[in-house]
Design brief:
Helices cover 50% and strands 9% of the residues. The protein contains 25 helices and 17 strands. The chain starts with a helix and ends with a helix. The relative contact order is 0.09.
């Protein structure tokens, strides 16, 4: 059954516990457990006899997932998907785990044995079950309260977050920590920001990580785009699913790195991410971004669509192309995959394989010839791969993830000078605002994928509001169209009213809940959470604070700044303990500590594009670059200054900070000099 009152009423009526299975379309082990257990007639009969079974998609119901992840972690120390939780008829968790095999193996009890044991406990030891469930609920509520832990917002706290990322840096392979290795895009942006301010160590960490990831198997060397994470510390063998939210944030990383360091390789990777997202995750007709692409084409393979044997490569390439591809992609007789040792994950130097210069020398070819052969090999191998059974693309359009993708497309499009990329972002935002935003607030789902019947409306959560508000502000900055500023303000105001831990008129607030406050809900949904950890998407409180600070700079209204500062101060006393996992907090903190720097580029002639490009370099977390054509309609703070500046015949750039603006400048050099001082 679906999560809802009907399922829990049935459990109450039949005096049964609830078996909750939380998974995801893209989750390999979820599909394995479905086949081994839920599709097994004997196991299904056992479940239906003793339980009311409820299945939840974690992408569709992040509110349910986050709470029961916390519950199972408190019970077993485990988390992830599939999540298997045993609940009372009131929805309170008393036992749980992740994947359970069909029989005793891997050091785990078989699922039928677990089912019978928990059913017996619920029937014969109800008091103990209720006591356990109560203690788990208290643990969830305590862990998420963050009460009385405030702190001071300053440069020192920001430095601690940067240093935390630098300390966890893998000097040899790039990235943070050991296996499994996740990209941590917010931390990379925080490091790029620090590097632009002269932190040499931050630059080494950021650039080494970006280069190693782009050379590894975590990056799709043929189609572009990144897989979710690497199972090894070298970035070679990934979990092959590809997520909208990973690629949106990594797209920002590579665009910001290009804007800051000027290396064309970063622009190349950013354009390749766009290529993959345009081809596979975009609704080109209506606008909007799809959710994910599966890792596998069936349960019997493990990344076979993406991987290659030497024989497979030889079949599609001529002799010279193969010799180059073999060295470039590190194609070996004994490859990288355990289930089929002949299968290789394509990766390049410096992670593995040879550089084009090394290949040219070894094969006694001209460098240009090797580059041409490499390009032909990639093209042919991708064409051949497209003839394989393509892993499923989940075409659900989620509101918050679309906000992330829209922001990434706008930011990358501006840095790379790609007008069509910005245009598609704006088209996608128009769709989100038209289909998901209205008198009831934001919906969590804009549209379901092919073959999925529309379901009951799922209310938007904090991250939906925060991501879309920031996306609307990004669209306003890129286009100057006031409708996007007004949409952002309406969404921010609704977010404050529905999610902020403060009553109207309160002088102080205490951050944001992830779901609408005082709404209640079944079981663990009654626990109120204030998300701080980037896991894996940027935390709702951090992104909300960023939106509020941006809105404060544009309107001059004190409430926005106060609520943002209160939110950051609520977590400031504990955030350093989250380190790498609170990097998005660091990005908002940078804007709070430094105040917003706003660069307004006023169109007057073709030089405005050059001024905009200069204004975007280097990346700075507190900087907003606004492209304006009409000064008659502006947000309040800008309306007080910009229309009264000295008139100019051509394009000008105006740098503003706080309540003051510097005189307009007309050249790229003048603008660069002003930004260097600010």
């Amino acid at each position: 059954m679906e999560w809802g009152d009907e399922a829990f009423a049935k459990a109450e009526r039949e005096n049964k516990p609830v078996l909750l299975d939380i998974g995801a379309v893209w989750c390999h082990w979820c599909h394995v457990m479905d086949r081994e257990s839920y599709e097994n007639p004997a196991t299904a009969e056992l479940i239906n006899e003793h339980y009311v079974a409820v299945k939840v998609d974690r992408d569709e119901r992040p509110d349910v997932d986050s709470r029961y992840q916390a519950a199972v972690s408190a019970i077993s120390g485990q988390g992830g998907w599939p999540l298997t939780a045993f609940l009372t008829a009131e929805g309170k968790p008393f036992f749980g785990g992740t994947y359970f095999p069909p029989d005793d193996r891997y050091g785990r009890p078989g699922f039928p044995r677990v089912l019978l044991t928990m059913a017996e406990a619920y029937a014969k030891k109800r008091d103990e079950v209720i006591e356990t469930a109560g203690s788990v609920m208290r643990a969830i509520e305590h862990n998420e309260s963050f009460s009385g832990r405030g702190g001071v917002l300053n440069e020192a706290l920001l430095g601690k977050l940067v240093e935390s990322a630098e300390r966890q840096f893998d000097e040899l392979n790039g990235g943070f920590g050991s296996q499994p290795k996740f990209p941590h895009p917010a931390a990379i942006d925080l490091l790029i920001d620090a590097a632009a301010r002269g932190d040499a160590r931050a630059r080494v960490v950021a650039e080494t990580t970006l280069r190693r990831m782009a050379a590894g198997g975590i990056y799709d060397q043929l189609a572009g785009g990144f897989h979710r994470y690497s199972v090894d510390e070298r970035w070679v063998v990934p979990h092959f699913e590809k997520m909208a939210y990973d690629n949106s944030e990594l797209l920002k990383n590579y665009a910001h790195a290009y804007a800051t360091f000027g290396d064309e390789d970063y622009a190349r990777v950013a354009k390749d991410i766009l290529r993959w997202m345009d081809e596979w995750l975009s609704d080109r007709e209506h606008g909007g971004f799809y959710a994910s692409q599966d890792a596998d084409d069936s349960l019997d393979d493990d990344g076979d669509y993406f991987t290659w044997t030497r024989v497979e490569a030889e079949e599609v390439l001529d002799r010279e192309e193969f010799l180059v591809a073999e060295a470039l992609f590190n194609l070996r007789a004994v490859g990288d995959m355990h289930h089929n040792p002949q299968k290789c994950v394509l990766h390049v130097a410096p992670v593995g394989g040879a550089t084009v210069e090394q290949i040219a020398k070894a094969l006694k070819m001209e460098l240009a010839q090797v580059r041409e052969l490499a390009a032909r090999a990639k093209e042919k191998m991708y064409e051949a791969r497209l003839k394989r059974k393509i892993p499923y693309v989940d075409k659900t359009v989620y509101t918050g993830w679309n906000g992330m993708c829209i922001s990434a497309y706008v930011q990358a499009g501006r840095v790379l000078g790609l007008a069509e990329t910005i245009a598609f972002a704006v088209k996608s935002l128009d769709r989100v605002l038209h289909e998901a935003w209205g008198e009831h607030g934001l919906a969590h789902v804009v549209a379901y994928g092919e073959g999925v019947a529309p379901r009951e409306r799922v209310a938007g959560v904090l991250e939906d509001y925060a991501f879309v508000a920031n996306a609307a502000l990004d669209a306003w900055e890129a286009t100057g169209e006031m409708k996007y500023f007004h949409a952002a303000r309406e969404i921010v105001d609704t977010m404050l009213a529905r999610f902020c831990d403060a009553e109207e008129g309160d002088a102080m607030s205490r951050g944001f809940f992830d779901t609408e406050k005082d709404k209640g809900g079944i079981g663990a949904l009654s626990a109120q959470r204030k998300p701080l950890q980037d896991a894996p998407t940027p935390a709702g409180n951090s992104v909300a604070a960023m939106a509020l600070l941006r809105m404060a700079a544009l309107t001059g209204e004190n409430l926005y700044e106060t609520r943002a500062t209160d939110t950051l101060e609520t977590f400031a006393g504990i955030v350093e303990h989250f380190g790498l996992y609170a990097a998005s907090f660091g990005l908002a903190l940078r804007r709070a500590v430094n105040d917003t720097t706003m660069v307004c580029v006023v169109d007057g002639d073709p030089r405005s594009t050059e001024l905009e490009s200069a204004a975007l370099r280097p990346y700075a977390a507190e900087k907003s670059v606004v492209r304006l054509k009409d000064l008659s309609a502006l947000p309040a703070a800008l309306a007080e200054t910009l229309p009264h500046l000295p008139k100019s015949e051509g394009s000008v750039a105006v740098v503003c900070r706080g309540n003051s603006c510097l005189p307009p400048v007309e050249t790229v050099d003048e603008l660069a000099a002003l930004l260097a001082k600010s």
